[in-house]
Structures are given as C-alpha cells and as structure tokens.
C-alpha cells in the first residue's frame, strides 16, 4: 500500500463519472476540464490500483503501519502521459541529413533522393532484433523519464512482410519487459520501397497482405502515410478498408505536407485519429469532428521540419475537435523523446492553453489509441500511472521549457523513474 501525499496541485483529468471519463474531451469548453484538487493525496492499493483520491487531510485515515508514503513535496501531479504516435522501433539515426537540410533541401526532397525514410528502412532491415530492441529500449527509458506511461509504436521501416513483422516482434518483446502500456500499429504503407519503385500496384497489394498478417500477430491499429511522395487517397482507402475487414482500428498520417484530403478520408473511414493535419482543410477538420475522429497534433514535427504548425485553435474553437498531442518520435522528422518539450511547443506554436495541453497529453491521447477507459485519467479503480513534478504547477512546467521537471513516475503504483 502506498500514499502519494503532499500534492500541492493535482490534475486528475476526471469529469466525475466512470462513463464520462472513458470519453475524450472535445471542443473549447470541454477541453478546460482538468479535475483539479489542491493539497491532495492518492491512495494506492496492493494491486497498484487507485483506492482513493482526495484532500491530504481526509486521506490520513488510510495510513497504517504498512503504508509507504511517497512525498510529492507540494508539487504538481497528473496522470501518466500517453504518447499516441511514435515510430519507436527503427535502426540508426539520420543526423547525416543535416548538411542537406541546412543547404535548403526539404523533407520530400530528401525522400525523393532516396534518403529520408528509405535510409532508415535500409538500416532497420540490416539490424538484428537485439540491436533494434536495445535502441528502442533506450528511447523508452527516455520517454518514461518525461512521464510517458503508455506508448503507441508503429512499424513502417521494414516495408517487407519479414521486416515489418520483425519490428512488431521487437515492440512486443519490449512490452513484456518494460513497465509501460503499449499499443501496436501496423504501418507497412509508410513509403514505396526502392525495390518496388516502378511497381506501385504490386506493392500496394503486398502491403494489404502485410496489414492482415500484422493484425494476426497483434497489431491493433492500421496506419497509412497518405501524402505527396507516399500514398494516394485511393490507395489509403483501399489499404485501410482491407485492414478494417480484419477488425483493425484506423489511424492516418493525414495532410502533413500536401492537402490531399486525408482528414476527409479519416472521417469517411471512421478512423480513431488523424495525425499531423498541418494543411488539413476546414471542411476536412469539421468532417472529422462530426465523425468523432480525434486530431493528433505533433508540434515537434512542424518545429523540426520548419513548417507552419497545425491549426489547433481552429480545431478546438471552430471545429470542436478533440485534440491530442504526441511526439511522433522518429529519426527523420521528430528525433526527440522529450514529451514535455512537445507540450511546451504546443503552448508556444499551437497556442493551446495549459488545460488543453494536459487534456491533450493524457485523456485525449489515451482516446487516440482507444485506451480512454484505462489510461489518461486518475480515478479510483484505475491503475496508478502517475507523474510527480518537481514544479509547483503546470504553467511552470510548460513555460520553463526544455527542462526535466519530472521527479517521479509511477506505473501501476510502482516507482519506475525517480
Ligand atoms: O510521421 N510523415 C511520415 N512519417 C514520419 C516520418 C518518418 C521518417 O522520416 O522517418 C512522420 O513524420
Ligand atoms: Fe509519424
């Protein structure tokens, strides 16, 4: 038994009832709901589940000789973060692209020259499972140190059945080993591999089979990179409809570089989320809201690629979307595991409020990977996945940016980072 005591400010992200808490918060009014408690404490049972949340004074009664007290030092506390979009498992890194980028080449130029995703595909194919495992484990430890307790992991750097399955196996092995919650996503349609350069149709057919096989091996979501230099709307529709027939849930890399109508496709297919959305149309974003699709904004990616950020204010204020945040951690467009930095970028580049940012990083991020019923909210009966900050409030965390403010991370009631 444990008691997290002396919490200066707790944001539970709860709206009250268990039924409500299993839903994302959409639109401007709802996204301010943080379930704040001051001078709080969280009682955790032997199974690592939350037994009670309340004022510290009221919870002193639960303390007995067996209770271990975790002192939050009057700091800010919130639910473990959910990172709903990462390319966790990959070989190598891409800092060698830096001179090209500094000389003015943009993301698609580098991809067209056979670099970009292609160079990571080659390195991933060449790596052993052990090498991929070790590299990804290092990233996971970094992510967790910044408060992430649930992570989505995509394939997408294999582009053949054998290597896509290898990536999934590595993510599943890490799931067994690391105290973190995992969500597995298949992304075999991430790019057209060099060996299929002039065989588009053939690759799209192969990719369709890869989704089905990856689903059998435990991938829950199917994702497609629909964009210039990647796959068309028609190809995306065909692949995701195929994945749907196998019972997979849908995500899209949508309208990142060129406005092809990825947001509209996400709405049409009833996707759980559409991600990036830098150049998504008003109509597409409104159609997503109508269809209950969440918008995942990736402020680290727009920052790194020096693109105009997603229109989070339009999404929240006008389209009344539920917005979530993620790192997009990958070697080419978002090489940082620092989730807190993404939250600061959301403040400054997306102009989201602190309340919206924490909703987007917890409850809505959980919803973006269909984990709303188990993650992203602190309430009795849920796992005690908790972040304790060495900071008095969320505004301090966000504005004092680029700094490690996390004092402790708990997963299922166990301290996994301190
Ligand atoms: O989400 N946009 C496409 N895919 C990744 C980047 C992958 C890479 O460059 O290696 C993304 O940004
Ligand atoms: Fe991505």
From TrEMBL:
The keyword Hydrolase applies. The keyword Cytoplasm applies. Binds 1 zinc or iron ion per subunit. Its main location: cytoplasm. Its cofactor is Zn(2+); Fe(3+). This is Imidazolonepropionase. The gene is hutI. GO terms for cellular component: cytoplasm. Fe(3+) binds at residues 85, 87, 253, 328. It comes from the Bacteria. NCBIfam families: hutI. It is found in: Cytoplasm. It catalyses: 4-imidazolone-5-propanoate + H2O = N-formimidoyl-L-glutamate. It comes from Sulfoacidibacillus thermotolerans (Acidibacillus sulfuroxidans). InterPro entries: Amidohydro-rel, HutI, Metal-dep_hydrolase_composite, Metal_Hydrolase. GO terms for molecular function: imidazolonepropionase activity; iron ion binding; zinc ion binding. Zn(2+) binds at residues 85, 87, 253, 328. Catalyzes the hydrolytic cleavage of the carbon-nitrogen bond in imidazolone-5-propanoate to yield N-formimidoyl-L-glutamate. It is the third step in the universal histidine degradation pathway. Keywords: Cytoplasm, Histidine metabolism, Hydrolase, Iron, Metal-binding, Zinc. 4-imidazolone-5-propanoate binds at residues 94, 157, 190, 256, 333. Pathway: Amino-acid degradation; L-histidine degradation into L-glutamate; N-formimidoyl-L-glutamate from L-histidine: step 3/3. Its EC number is 3.5.2.7. HAMAP family: HutI. Residues 76-416 form the Amidohydrolase-related domain. GO terms for biological process: L-histidine catabolic process to glutamate and formamide; L-histidine catabolic process to glutamate and formate. SUPFAM superfamilies: Composite domain of metallo-dependent hydrolases, Metallo-dependent hydrolases. Belongs to the metallo-dependent hydrolases superfamily. HutI family. It is an enzyme of class 3 (hydrolase).
